[in-house]
Structure formats: structure tokens, C-alpha cells
Write a structure and sequence with these properties.
This protein is an alpha+beta fold and 423 residues long. It has 9 helices and 17 strands. The chain starts with a helix and ends with a strand.
């Protein structure tokens, strides 16, 4: 059943049920009026019981349990009864996509000679195959004294680590071939086994730049209000982020990802790490596991020109997306940042029909002209002191200090992509 038909049938069923209930209630009230004696105006309330009049003002003060969960009381542990997390459609076998396309990603790094040890870290695409992405091969060449691929202990990130010592021309080139397929969320299908509890807990916790309490929780409660269904709650958060953030093209890279600053200042927006990080923070604060997914645009977009590459140069194509978890449905993809990017770069009004269509698509769909690299946060790189909030750009360390891919001083790199035949 197509999603729109499914939603239409639900709406029709709800309307039918409402009319039937109204008719039944009217019949019951008429019968009761004929058999019940009218009450006198002097009737007094029973002692010890608070009486509420059926008015909007009185209803505002009725005691009620909070609807929103918290990071300490997540929706995965106590889903509201009758919602998408507790009343689930039948489990069906996952259907692998049929339309795959392969991309070759070539990263070339040229460094200035430096006294002492030079260290370089390059993030690699996801090391585990998924229903929407498969890493097919890696190869490298260059002049490092030592080089290896390292997988961090939690499995969130795989990195290529190279070192040079007193080398006249420090160079490196890495080629990776990745196959991708468009990713879709279907509300009528339950196809995913439960996620590991340690992964869910990790994606409810706060990180250096993404809080899960305080202002984030207050904002989340205000956004979801009385909405109980977890999918509808996440959709409300998505809509709020789209409506209340600004995409800032003047910021370098994907932005800083500093959600704490956004919440403290009350000014929301930035680039993809900032906007989608805000979505992640609010979801975590109301008890919905969520995470940022760091990756790279590798091809043109069929949706909007500015949501993909316009040439084979992907050096500035880094982009962060997001996903949230609902029991039975698994990780659901979203990208509110690209909605704001389309508004900013395509010069669209918020009421433009194309924008409204894109807004609906990017809740539940990833166009896979993009390759996911990792979901790591607060990352400790091997051989590097301290932690980084996230790793997406190349990282360099010399005696002169540390730099990343946005700092061109002594650090030149470029990324080229091309579509190739799989296999």
C-alpha cells in the first residue's frame, strides 16, 4: 500500500469513527433526558473533591502527566500506548533496493615539508554495509613512512592514519569506491530488528556540543505539546527546525555544530552540522534517540541543483545529515538543513510549491548522491591529544600545531568524484 493511500484510509477511518461516536452520544443524551430527573441548582459538590468547570480556562489548570519523555526516560523504554512505537504493523522482510550506483572518491593531499613528525588523519566511508550504502574497495599511494586504517573501538568511525618523518615531499592519495541507493522510510512497514541498547543509550546522551537537557528539553516540550506519537513528535521537531533556523553560507565547512551556543543565545542556524545538530539535540531531550551522520556529496542532485555537486570537485562537498530511532522502524532519515539550504541558495519563498514538496521529501528520504562517513562524536583520534566534537575534514598535526581541512596554511588537499560501473 502506498503511503498516501495508507494515510488517506486512516483519515477516512478517523472521520467515520468520529461521526459514529457523535451520533451515538446524541442518541444516548436524548434517552437520558427523558428518564432522568433534573438536578436542583442548590446541589453542592462533595467535600474533599476539586471541581473543574468545562471551560478552556479551567482546562488549562487540570493536572496532567507530561507528554514528552526525557533522555533519562526515553520513548524506547516506555512508548505511549496506541502510538507508532507500540501498535506496529506486521514485520516484513527488508527489501534491498534495486537501483544502485557506484562512485569513486579520490582524495589527494600535498603537505609542506616540516621538521619533526607529521601526522595526518582522513575519515573514510562507513565500514559496515547497510541497505543504502556499501564500501567496495580502498587503495592508496604516496610517501608516508607508515600508514594504516584504524577503526575506533565503538565502531562509529574508520580513519586512515599516516605519518611522515623528515620527508621532503609528504604526499598521499586514497581511492575509495562506494555504492549507494536512495533511502526511503515507509510508515506502513516494520522491517527492522531492535537496535542494540548500548547504541540507543549512546544516542540519548549529551556530547560536547549537543545537550540533552535544560534549554533543549524546555524547547522540545514546547514544540511537541500534547503530541504523543513519537513519529509525529519528531515531525513536529523537524518542522520547527525548518521554520526557525537560517542557513549561513559564510561559515566554513559544515559549521561548528555548537548547539549549546544556539540555545543559550536563542539564535538558531548555521550550516548542516549546526541545523541538523539542533534537531538531534531536541529529539534526545524528549527521549527519542537521534544522531548526526557525517558525510560527503558525491554527485548531482535530482531535487535541487544546490543539493548536489555541479562538477567532479567534491573538496567542499562535506555535508551532515541526521536520523532518529523509533522502535520497530529503526533509524529514520531526515535533513532539515537541506530545506534551509534550498531556501537560501535557490532564493525560494517559504510558500513555494517546490519547497513544500522538498520539505515533505526530506522527512524520511535521503537522496544518495551523498556518502555517509561516520556517526562518531567526541572522537579521540589515535596518536592525537584530546578529543574532537566530530571528524569529517582531514586533520593534520605538526610541530607548528594542528589544522583541519578549512585551514589551507601548509595543507593542500582536494577530493574528486566520478560515477563508475559497480564491480
Amino acid at each position: 500500500m502506498k503511503r498516501r493511500n495508507f494515510l488517506a484510509s486512516i483519515a477516512a477511518f478517523s472521520l467515520f469513527g468520529s461521526e459514529a461516536w457523535a451520533a451515538k452520544k446524541q442518541t444516548s443524551s436524548t434517552a437520558k433526558a427523558k428518564t432522568t430527573k433534573p438536578k436542583t441548582a442548590s446541589a453542592k459538590p462533595k467535600p474533599g473533591r476539586t471541581q473543574f468547570r468545562n471551560t478552556p480556562a479551567a482546562q488549562d489548570y487540570r493536572p496532567r502527566a507530561p507528554v514528552a519523555h526525557t533522555a533519562d526516560d526515553p520513548v524506547t523504554e516506555a512508548p505511549p500506548q496506541g502510538t507508532s512505537a507500540s501498535r506496529l504493523p506486521p514485520v516484513k522482510a527488508a527489501e534491498p533496493p534495486e537501483d544502485w550506483r557506484a562512485y569513486e572518491i579520490t582524495t589527494t593531499v600535498s603537505l609542506k615539508p616540516s621538521k619533526g613528525l607529521i601526522k595526518l588523519w582522513l575519515p573514510l566511508p562507513l565500514n559496515q554495509d547497510t541497505l543504502f550504502q556499501r564500501t567496495l574497495s580502498h587503495s592508496w599511494s604516496g610517501t608516508p613512512d607508515s600508514a594504516s586504517m584504524r577503526r575506533l573501538p565503538d565502531g562509529n568511525l574508520e580513519i586512515f592514519h599516516a605519518e611522515w618523518l623528515n620527508v621532503n615531499e609528504p604526499t598521499l592519495q586514497i581511492k575509495t569506491t562506494v555504492s549507494t541507493a536512495d533511502r526511503h522510510f515507509d510508515v506502513t512497514k516494520r522491517t527492522v530488528a531492535p537496535e542494540r541498547e548500548d547504541i540507543l543509550r549512546r544516542n540519548l546522551r549529551a556530547s560536547q556540543l549537543i545537550p540533552n537537557d535544560g534549554l533543549a528539553h524546555q524547547l522540545g516540550e514546547r514544540i511537541v505539546g500534547r503530541i504523543k506519537d513519537p513519529v509525529a513528535q519528531a515531525k513536529a521537531v523537524y518542522d520547527w527546525v525548518v521554520d526557525n533556523t537560517i542557513y549561513d553560507t559564510s561559515l566554513p565547512g559544515c559549521g561548528s555544530g555548537d548547539v549549546r551556543r544556539q540555545l543559550n543565545e536563542g539564535q538558531y542556524g548555521g550550516r548542516s552540522a549546526d541545523i541538523n545538530g539542533l534537531f538531534v539535540a531536541i529529539c534526545r531531550a524528549i527521549g527519542i534517540p537521534a544522531r548526526s551522520v557525517y558525510g560527503l556529496r558525491v554527485g548531482p542532485s535530482r531535487l535541487f541543483r544546490n543539493l548536489g555537486l555541479t562538477s567532479d570537485d567534491a573538496t567542499r562537498g562535506h555535508h551532515v545529515r541526521a536520523e532518529f530511532y523509533i522502535p520497530g522502524y529503526g533509524w529514520i532519515p531526515v535533513d532539515p538543513s537541506d530545506v534551509r539550504r534550498a531556501i537560501s541558495l535557490e532564493v525560494l519563498s517559504d510558500r513555494d510549491s517546490k519547497l513544500q514538496a522538498l520539505r515533505k521529501v526530506l522527512f524520511g528520504v535521503w537522496e544518495m548522491n551523498w556518502v555517509a562517513f561516520n556517526v562518531g562524536s567526541d572522537v579521540a583520534l589515535p596518536g592525537k591529544v584530546g578529543t574532537l566534537p566530530f571528524v569529517l575534514l582531514p586533520q593534520l598535526s605538526t610541530l607548528e600545531g594542528s589544522r583541519n581541512g578549512t585551514d589551507a596554511e601548509g595543507f593542500r588537499y582536494n577530493i574528486k568524484t566520478r560515477q563508475v560501473a559497480e564491480g
